[in-house]
Amino acid sequence: MNMELTYQSKIAEYLQIDVEQVSLYWKGRVALYTMLKAMGVGPGDEVVLPAFTCVVVPNAILYVGAIPVYVDINPDSLCCDVEQIEKAISPKTKVILIQNMLGLSVQVSEIIALAKKHSIFTIEDCTHGFGGKHQGVFNGLRSDASFFSSQWNKPFSTGIGGMLVVNNQELLQSVYSLQSKLIKPNAKDRFILFVLIWARTYLLKGFTYWTFLRMYRWLSKKGLVVGSSSASELEGIHMPKDYVKGMSKVQCRAGIKAISTLNQVISKRKNSGISVHEWLTSQGKTAVPTEHLAQHAFLKYPLLVRDRELFLQQAEKGKIPMGDWFISPLHPVLDSLKPWGLEVSNFPNAVFVSKHIVNLPLDLPVHRLINFLELYKNEII
């Protein structure tokens, strides 16, 4: 069995699905692009999605010639409510994108029922949610298809990487056809990614974390290393060269190793997430709605803070590797979002959250997290 098929089999075994449903990609956004193509989405079609996401998501929609139609989020769950999604549906709507935010799935069944009522496809954006469940079912298995990410800081990491799970059997043949046309990662891609995975494993920890993180982000921005996003993806709406790329053996090897310990990682994050949640609610702070916690596999715990820059500085001093997803309604673009068809004045919740959100890492000992929160609790909304 080759490396790619072994990795696909491990994913399928974990999710308890057929291996034929799983396909692999250089990045998760390529999986989304592939699924849109397989669904026949093209010029004039509309895709409904949250107005609080990563810019690579509307990019994939624009790359197939379709129109992103945004919906504001619920500031408590950071996801879209079904009532707001229904208002965005038009005769041109071809797909509804159901986003799993920081591991949290909300109203998935209701949104899928709405889509079926209007004969609309559904795709779950589970880039934060591999391994979590919603109403007893693994994230990503209720909709027509779902895509996942295994990039840095995702539920498990292959450096960069993505997966597609197809639940609608009628779409499988189109996916297979598109899969056969993927560009193969070249030797340079594979070598750089191997070095980055090694550095991430052995160097990006403890007192070296902040130094190497800044170095990586600078090199990524300059296009000198394989990064989460290329400069062209952040600056405009034109598809980069070699965008439609398949997964390498380097990524598959890392994924096979990482998925073997995923249950332990999720268990630790979930226990820490519940402890953080209990502390936040005891202090009267903004917290994820309690009813969503039962099977939520936390990737990070979202905090709303008064002064994000100051809070991140305090986290660095306290050696807490705090994340900053999402600093913009279309993270991480801070300039005008009009090229992507998003007028910020129409989405006040997304704008507010993007100005105040930070992400608490849940891999650290929980007492360290609570002690840090206690120290700076006046900064938390």
What does this structure look like?
This protein is of the alpha/beta class. The chain is built from 14 helices and 13 strands. It folds into two domains: 3-179, Type I PLP-dependent aspartate aminotransferase-like (Major domain) (Aspartate Aminotransferase, domain 2); 262-379, Aspartate Aminotransferase, domain 1 (Alpha-Beta Complex), CATH 3.90.1150.10. It has helices at residues 3-15, 28-38, 56-63, 82-88, 108-117, 172-179, 187-202, 209-221, 231-235, 249-259, 262-282, 308-317, 348-356, 366-375, and strands spanning 22-25, 46-50, 53-54, 67-71, 93-99, 121-125, 133-134, 137-138, 145-149, 162-166, 300-304, 330-331, 357-361. The strands form four sheets. The protein has a seven-stranded mixed beta sheet with strand order 1-10-9-6-5-2-4, with helices on both faces. The protein is globular, with a radius of gyration of 20 Å.
